[in-house]
Amino acid sequence: MKGKLITIAVIATLAIFGLTILYGAEDNPNKHKNGFQRKFIANAITRIKVAPFENAVYQLCGTNGGLLYLSGQIPGLVYVADRQLSRIYTVQLPLPKIPNLAPVFYTVVCFPDIFILGGNIKIIISGNLLTKKYTIHNLNTGPFGNVSVAGNNNFILRDIDTLTYNALFKKVNRRGEVQQAEKGISERLHDFGFLDYGKLTYDSTTHLFVYVSRYSNRITCFDSSLTVQYISRTIDTSSHPKINIAKEQGSVTIKTPPFTVNQDACSSQGQLFVHSGLKADDENTSDFNDRAVFDVYTEITGAYIGSFYIPNYDGESFKNFNILGKNRLIVFYDQHIVSYDLTSTN
């Protein structure tokens, strides 16, 4: 029974994404002043290329030379695009139907190798996109999320401890063996990871991981040895999550839908880009509502650099994004992928 409760908690965590959309009729922070201002960067982005793409994309899961690897809703199916977005095709690892692998799975491509990590069923599938062969390893963890690469042979993930219900970062190898557990990165909240749910991002040039909390302004930076480098804040004033949970009989339930402070994040070349959910006091309401606003920080210290907008495209709303190198921004919309130049943010 305990295992079922924990699995349900992880699924509920993903469901929060939908709940945040419904939140706000009575207590939407963007209907009043939030106590901070933004410094906008002039001419921060320039649109380069638009490509139609009707398939839902969850994440950029790898790069290789001039190619991008994108994962969607089907485990093992990978979309491949060149950096000019002039050609998009698919490659696939032919997996059987594995119960409960979707929707909580994470894909990492180091071509030709592919790794698929199942957060609810606690497995790593190690495969080869050329030979189509694969092996499945069980992980000695609880349910997990926030998977990121840590060098060539390891992954960092956020594991829910099945005894304490704390969410902790751990390093695991390709065979699913736990190599190291964190000490002092995460707060022990016994909440299945709800209160400090967020986005883990990794910068291969600085070798730093940055965890950006979704429901508060907390930024936590740590290295591959799981040692904290600093804890800072985004520019808003939301230091405490606006989410109510109830704990009883070994389970956690959400009493009220939370409000999203930071919707997404990505780090690259020493800069951290955060897609914010909060309107600054000096922002025009229509500008904020019709565009996605990004705040840029220095990754090494967490210091704020400035902000810029990304407009909706052809009536389609912004879904998620990735940064490639120092000056390329890839944005996923409902039915298009758009690339932008980011030279002015450097």
Describe the structure.
By secondary structure, the chain is mainly β. The protein has a single domain (2-345), classed as TolB, C-terminal domain (Neuraminidase). Helix content is 8%, strand content 46%. The chain contains 2 helices and 26 strands. It has helices at 2-22, 285-290; strands at 46-52, 59-64, 67-71, 77-82, 88-92, 105-110, 113-118, 123-128, 134-138, 144-150, 154-160, 167-173, 178-181, 198-203, 208-213, 218-223, 228-233, 244-248, 251-256, 262-268, 271-276, 291-298, 304-311, 318-324, 328-333, 336-341. Strands 1-26-25-24 form a 4-stranded antiparallel sheet, with no helix packed on it. It has a 4-stranded antiparallel sheet with strand order 2-3-4-5, with no helix packed on it. A hairpin with a 4-residue loop joins strand 12 and strand 13. The radius of gyration is 20 Å and the shape is globular. The N and C termini lie far apart (51 Å). Mean pLDDT is 87; it is low at 1-26.
Order of helices and strands: HEEEEEEEEEEEEEEEEEEEEEHEEEEE
Predict the CATH topology: Neuraminidase
CATH superfamily: TolB, C-terminal domain
CATH-level-2 architecture: 6 Propeller
**First-to-last CA distance:** 51 Å
Query: What is the CATH class?
Result: Mainly Beta
Mean pLDDT: 87
Strand content: over 45%
Number of strands: 26
The strand order across the widest sheet is 1-26-25-24
Taken together, the total number of domains comes to 1
